[in-house]
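The record is passed on directly below:
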Amino acid sequence: MILRVAIALLFCASAVFAVQPDEVLDDPVLEERARGLSKELRCLVCRNESIDESNADLARDLRLLVRERLVAGDSDDEAITFIVDRYGEYVLLRPTTGGSNWVLWAAGPLMLLLAGGIGAGYLRKRAHATGTQEAALSDEELERLRRILDE
């Protein structure tokens, strides 16, 4: 039972082990700022994991870079801007809505509206379409049908 609890705690606390003891800053305020910024930056190796949670070497380098920038006196925005300038906007877990990204942000709702419009047009056209009427059987066909059914 104790082993199961220990394993469960190990899996729950796996993100805690990402930040190595030698990375932690002496100033608790700066360390808290660094942890906050690290949670907003994407690990470029792990894709959808923050550098605060990742054990990849590149994530460690980015964590150290964030701390280095904060120790140098950068504000949070300046540190993020420095990293984005160096690695591109992909490093942000929550990309900005400005610039060319507005197309990406608007694409989902626009596609939904487009699909709704196409669907409504199709249903309207289908509702107003005249039904196809089948031609009545000729006298010869009716006679042949009667013979087949009588057999």
Observations:
- Residues 101-128 form the longest helix (28 residues).
